[in-house]
Write a structure and sequence with these properties.
By secondary structure, the protein is mainly beta. The chain has a single domain, classed as Nucleoside Triphosphate Pyrophosphohydrolase (Alpha-Beta Complex). It is about 10% helix and about 45% strand. It is built from two helices and nine strands. It has helices at about 55-65, 140-145, and strands at about 5-10, 15-25, 30-35, 45, 70-85, 90-100, 110-115, 120-130, 155-160. A hairpin with a 7-residue loop joins strand 7 (about 110-115) and strand 8 (about 120-130).
Length: about 160
């Protein structure tokens, strides 16, 4: 279904939209990365045409972790992010949803573990909230944004990464 992802090349940019899960448990927050990557990011994925950001988070957590005991809140933060990866320039919109995972879900009992989605090669890990600023997390602005995640108002940031 990747052909339905909101991921469009326009001139020398790739425009895409992602929805991510902000899962906090006992002052720890869950991140993911491909095993070969250096940096960690929030779990989630590209939004598909006709899919809400909330539906994207639900689909991704089911596909990547097999979760079925969780509640997804409304959007808590939105980011507009400009960056380069490889030879491509990106203009990306990221919609973050707080997610409450039920106490008996298996991911709460492990510090680092593999994802279940075939051919995605994902690993997940819990990071302490107070250690985010020194952790290998991308994008960089996310560290500060997550420190303020418990504020009631919607957070919005535009960030242009410098090379």
């Amino acid at each position: 279904m990747k052909n339905r992802d909101i991921n469009i090349r326009i001139e020398d940019y790739i425009l895409n939209c992602r929805a991510v899960a902000i899962i906090i448990n006992n002052d720890n927050i869950l991140f993911q990365k491909r095993k070969q990557d250096e940096f960690w990011a929030l779990p989630g994925g590209k939004i598909r045409v006709g899919e809400t950001t909330k539906e994207t988070v639900i689909r991704e957590l089911e596909e990547e972790l097999g979760l079925n005991k969780f509640n997804v809140s409304e959007v808590s933060n939105i980011s507009e992010y400009f960056f380069e990866f490889g030879k491509d320039k990106y203009h990306q919109f990221i919609f973050g949803h707080k997610v409450l995972v039920k106490d008996d879900e298996w991911i709460l009992k492990n510090n680092e573990f593999d994802g279940i989605e075939d051919q995605e090669n994902l690993v997940f890990k819990w990071f302490k909230l107070e250690e985010l600023r020194t952790s290998p997390i991308k994008p960089d602005f996310l560290k500060e944004q997550l420190e303020n995640i418990n504020k009631k108002e919607l957070q919005f940031i535009t960030y242009k990464e410098e090379k």
